[in-house]
Structures are given as C-alpha cells and as structure tokens.
Please model this.
Amino acid sequence: KAGVTQTPRYLIKTRGQQVTLSCSPISGHRSVSWYQQTPGQGLQFLFEYFSETQRNKGNFPGRFSGRQFSNSRSEMNVSTLELGDSALYLCASSPGTGGSWTGELFFGEGSRLTVL
Amino acid sequence: DQQVKQNSPSLSVQEGRISILNCDYTNSMFDYFLWYKKYPAEGPTFLISISSIKDKNEDGRFTVFLNKSAKHLSLHIVPSQPGDSAVYFCAARDSGGYQKVTFGTGTKLQVIP
Model:
C-alpha cells in the first residue's frame, strides 16, 4: 500500500512569512503526528491528530498549528517564520486506535523548510 | 526537558564487529521502547521494539536490551554491515499519551568496510 506522502518536499521562505505543509497518511491510518528535526535536537514532537482532533501537543509556540481533515489528511502551518524554524518537518501515521499498538510510526520523507 | 537521551552523537565501527548504541530515559510512564533508522533524505523507519516488561528482544542481527532499573536501553547490531550506516533514533511510547512517541537526538553510526 502507498506510504505517507508529504508535500512539498522542499521550500524556501523568508522571515515573517507563513507556510503550510501537507501530509497524506497511509490508507486506513487515522492518527497523524508531526515532528521537527533539527541538527542536535533529534525529532521533536509537535502534535498528534486523530479524527480531526488534536490529542497531543508538544512544547512549541502558538505559531505552530495543525489540523486534520475527515479523510485523515493533515496540514501544519507555521506563521511569522523565524530563522530557527528552518528544519525538516516529518509527518508520521499510525492506526490511531487499538491496544496492540506498540509505538510504530510510519514516516513520510519530510518537508525541508529553509527560512532566509 | 529531554526525556529520551542519546549521549553519543556518533559512532564508528569496523565491518563485522558489534555496534552498540545507547539510550537513557527519564519518564517512568514509557511502556514501549523503539529504535528507528534514518538514511539521508528519507523518513525514519522502524527497526525493533521492546516492551517495558521484557529485558531483551531479538530480530536477526538486531537485539535491544532494556534495563528498567537503570532506565537504560541499548541496541546491538551483530555483525555490523556498511549498509547499517545511518542515524539511529531511540524512541519511547508514553502509556498515558494516546499515540505520542518521544524521540532522542540520534546517533550517527558509520560502519567502515
């Protein structure tokens, strides 16, 4: 089955602009999580959505927001971009329910954001 | 507050030898621990996991050991192969956080032919 698809793969923005990233999960997966990867910081959790509701949120400022649609596709938005927002943004999907889930996430290839 | 820590940013190992990657955690609510592998320009892929009620899980060349009293886990790769060169992330599932998974900072493994 098709994997997690993220668009765009690469983008360049300037400070103060805003950006929207998109993620299509694996078919049948209802949970979508977003992570930010920067050198030395690993993967930092942004938020997780299930059935159009945000269930978990990481320690990021309110400039970072997201949403999930009824078809489980998700978008994240970063407003008023800062130089420090330059990073690889990764989306991951998982079934979303079921006590047997052990933590396995399926990641997309990421969206590389550069802020100038 | 880094709840999952990987203190070694990089590791070099000769082909055929053992690679040992280490990870420490602080949150007692973690109930599953996982290792992911990441190649450049790709997303992380799941490698192996272990439940907090076990102390060892093995899958082919990969073995994960968990020392719950020390809040420490390690990944052993035997024998190491050049294709294993990648960044390895330790991760943990929070039993109280729906589907929240916390990752470490990663260890870049280089296997030298």
Summary: Chain A touches chain B through 28 residues (CB under 8 Å).
